[in-house]
Amino acid sequence: MRSVMQLCGVCSEHVPKYRCPACRIRYCSVSCFKRHKDDDACHPVKESDPASSSSTPVSNAEKPWDVEDRLDEDSQTDKVPLEKLQQLADSEALKGLLRNPHLRRLMMSVDTAEDKAKATKDAMQEPLFVEFADQCLKIIEPTEAEDDDEF
């Protein structure tokens, strides 16, 4: 049983589902993520682990996830259900966006970047990338108004 319910680090209204890859603040939605980035409130954390102060730096991609990366060990809030993944794969809107070579280049640059947090932050400055992220979130986390439209 939890003694304290965590709230979004941006709006302080909802339970956070995501964590900023750069500064690790927890947020609840794309709009809070955008607000967080637009307000220049994102200050990337520099991990200072005495054990890793050797001459060979370890990239974020190679670091194992720790307990803090999971919001709740018993919940599925940070996992996308297989049904939603299938909806992403079947989305004509996403397929249309992915036909754009500029978006594909942006995604490749994020995927191959050594500093994925910075690459993601940079990509989020591109309206096309934001549109893609928004479209994905509409499928994964439809709002109540969008749910009502389906019936």
Automatic annotation (TrEMBL):
Record flagged with keyword Metal-binding: yes
A Pfam family of this chain: zf-HIT
One GO-annotated biological process of the protein: snoRNA localization
Chain intervals for the UniProt region annotation (Disordered): 43-79
GO CC annotation: cytoplasm; nucleus; pre-snoRNP complex
Source organism superkingdom: Eukaryota
Main localisation: cytoplasm
Protein location: Cytoplasm; Nucleus
InterPro entries: BCD1, Znf_HIT, ZNHIT3_C
Molecular function GO terms recorded: zinc ion binding
UniProtKB keywords: Cytoplasm, Metal-binding, Nucleus, Phosphoprotein, Zinc, Zinc-finger
Domain HIT-type: 8-42
Keyword Cell inner membrane annotated: no
Record's compositionally biased regions (Low complexity): 50-59
Subunit: Thyroid receptor interacting proteins (TRIPs) specifically interact with the ligand binding domain of the thyroid receptor (TR). Requires the presence of thyroid hormone for its interaction. Interacts with NUFIP1. Interacts (via HIT-type zinc finger) with the RUVBL1/RUVBL2 complex in the presence of ADP.
Record protein name field: Zinc finger HIT domain-containing protein 3
Organism encoding this protein: Carassius auratus
